[in-house]
Amino acid sequence: MADAKSLSETKTIFGHPPGLYVLFFTELWERFSYYGMRALFTLFLVAKTNTDNPGFGWTNSEAIALYGWYTMLVYLASVPGGWIADNLLGQKKTVMLGGILLCVGHTILAFDTEFSFYLGCFFVILGVGGLKPNISSMVGGLYPKGDERRDLGFYIFYMGINIGGFAAPILCGWVGETYNWHYGFGLAAIGMFIGQITYFYGQKYLVGVGDFIGKESHPDRELRKRKLTAVEKDRVKVLLISFLLIIFFWGAFEQVGGLMNLYAKQKTDRMLMGMEIPASWFQSLNSFFIITLAVGVGGFWMRWKLKGKEASSLYKIAIGILIMGMGFLFMRFAAVDYEVAGKSAMYWLVLAYLFHTIGELCASPVSLSFITKLAPVKYAASIMGLYWAATGLGNKLAASIGGYAETAGEKQIFTGIFIFCTLIAISVILLLKPLKRLTHGAEDLEKAQ
Q1: Which residues sit opposite 276 in a β-bridge?
Q2: Three-class DSSP category at 389
Q3: Fewest CB within a 10 Å sphere: which of 69, 165, 292, 320?
Q4: Which mean pLDDT values do the consecutive 10-residue runs of the chain (449 residues) have?
Q5: What superfamily would CATH give domain 4-218+229-440?
């Protein structure tokens, strides 16, 4: 991490270090490639083999199961990706390596063979593992400790993720569904190449950020030699508890790429003004709402905090789980609609995505910032890797739950998710005081500076 003095003297763009925008655009295009593929993944797997645009002809449960394994491994790969950054290459070089692997993986997916599909997925898994945990840690490394701009910096970074996430399903989804699945995958590859070029030429704005701290000359080297203090151990404990909440959050939220994606395709009336809306386009709603609501949600929490009300990261995560869970009530109504009319209205999906997004805005960017505040510097990338591993386990949990829909029914699945999220959120709020004690005032440091 660059020292506070050098960061404070750095020229800023809109009040933030120029490096933030390099990482912003790199992540934008990386997420374009990832979400472009994700929008097509299960739809491609269930597409019949005897059509003009053939897929693998799998059942819903088979497609959701593979989707769960793929997304879990994508994020679990962040653990070795974080270890490589901490012990061998540093965050900056590991992001570069991850981007190269992603370019390879998405390019292979553009080829129309079964072997290339699996091989492409393998390289994407490796690439995301190298890039994802480390680029997030680098955002935190742009700011000195106690800098109030850090949370806002993560919101800006999060906007980059979601601009890519908004455009990808519309462009890649439309090309893939309308013309050829592999053309859609190929368009995702082009996006990844743009992101890699951006990162390569933006290195001059990232000097002192994400370097390998094992070097003798690095000012943080001594931090690797000493043991964790009692305070640091407590902070790691509360981080591990927050990772459990992350598993629950994404275990519910990530129905979006599996069960809800197939529900949009197979059971939703998608006709609008004489045009059938591609099912993959609904994947853009989440990012659209993030882009339009992020500033409002962030501003609300800032005003809430200034009024002296509870605004800790753990509280925000709990509220995020609660609101996101409420979105599944609308999916329950959609399932009832389908039982009565044989098709469910599109507005149920829109409302569900709206509540999911508000919940995500409360929980996800805050959790990233929370890690950079509490994680010991010597384990920063590894702990960020554990965060993404928790996200991966949440994805696998989502697939396991969604796979039961063919036997248990969507209405029962959506109702159960709502009830579970509500209970988890209430439990965290009730245990908030002892959990906050484990942070030893890490978030209070910002008030004093």
Answers
A1: 271
A2: helix
A3: 292
A4: 46 80 93 92 92 92 93 88 87 94 95 93 94 85 76 80 91 93 94 94 87 61 69 84 91 91 92 90 92 87 87 90 95 93 93 95 82 78 78 91 88 94 94 86 58
A5: MFS general substrate transporter like domains (1.20.1250.20)
